[in-house]
Amino acid sequence: MRLVACLFAALLSFVVVLAQLKDKPKDPPPQPLYALQLAVDPGKTTKLTLRGLNLDSATEVRVGEPKSSGKVVGKGKKVTVPNQMSAQVVGDSEIEIEVTLPKEVPGGEVPFTLIGPGGEGKSMTLLVNDDTPRVQEKEPNDGFKQAMPVTAPQIVESSFKQNQDVDVFRLEGKAGEKFRIEILAGRFGSPADAMLTIYDADGTTIATGEVPVGGRDPIVRLSLPKTGAFFISVLEGFDQGGANFVYRLAVRKE
């Protein structure tokens, strides 16, 4: 009888342990929110710094493009969430990855996910660079007198460096020329909530960016009313800023 009782007690303990393991919550999967570079190049390996949630647990990268690959570089780490900001928006962790795309991938977008002990996170989208010329924003460019010259077509890789940062760009054009000027940021996860305004040389507003239905980033389509210099003003709608408030300004002719 004593042996039976011992076996029964052991079996009961085993069942309790299994139940506890079953009820134990799983670690959440790593969830990237945005990349500080926003885009990758076809035909080469691009190193990216990602911000997101639980990225310190990521062990694998899965790229949703044929003949593409990705890998985690080093170990992810927790990062400080700035005051009055939400970790769900700016992220609580950071990790570096490498993404390799074949040469034949056209400019556009490519999805990828991160995988960790808690499973696979939701898909995130990266831009794929095309042959549009790209330049880095040059500071200071906080007003008309310091405006950074841009041409079309051109993409400016930029960020709101600090709170209440205003970036101004100078565009020369002729009367009747048509341009499409847009921001690429929020739709690719950036916490930047950009506002876009176009002024003439007298400081008069001639166009303001409109956000498409279901979108997050403003676009301006305009025909220049006269020949001369025009100024593109970009600011963060909530006066927030920092290295992770990244955006791209795309200027093209239509």
Q: What's the helix count?
A: 2
Strand segment count = 19
**How many independent structural domains?**
2
In the predicted model, the low-confidence regions spanning at least 5 consecutive residues are none
Structural commentary:
This protein folds into two domains: 31-128, Sandwich (Immunoglobulin-like); 134-253, Jelly Rolls. The longest helix has 22 residues, at 2-23. The chain has helices at 2-23, 87-90, and strands spanning 31-35, 39-40, 45-53, 60-63, 69-78, 93-100, 108-116, 119-120, 124-128, 134-136, 148-150, 154-159, 166-173, 178-184, 194-200, 205-208, 219-223, 228-236, 246-253. The model has no long low-confidence stretch (mean pLDDT 92). Strand 15 (194-200) and strand 16 form a beta hairpin. The protein is globular. The strands form four sheets. Strands 2, 4, 7, 8 and 9 form a five-stranded mixed sheet that branches. The protein has two helices and 19 strands. The protein is mostly beta strands and 254 residues long. The termini are far apart.
Summarize this structure as a short list of keywords or feature phrases.
Jelly Rolls; 10% helix; Immunoglobulin-like; mainly beta; globular; five-stranded mixed sheet; single chain
Topology of helices and strands:
Elements: H1 2-23, E1 31-35, E2 39-40, E3 45-53, E4 60-63, E5 69-78, H2 87-90, E6 93-100, E7 108-116, E8 119-120, E9 124-128, E10 134-136, E11 148-150, E12 154-159, E13 166-173, E14 178-184, E15 194-200, E16 205-208, E17 219-223, E18 228-236, E19 246-253
Parallel strand pairs: 2-9, 10-12, 11-13
Antiparallel strand pairs: 1-3, 3-6, 4-7, 5-6, 7-8, 7-9, 12-19, 13-18, 14-17, 14-19, 15-16, 15-18
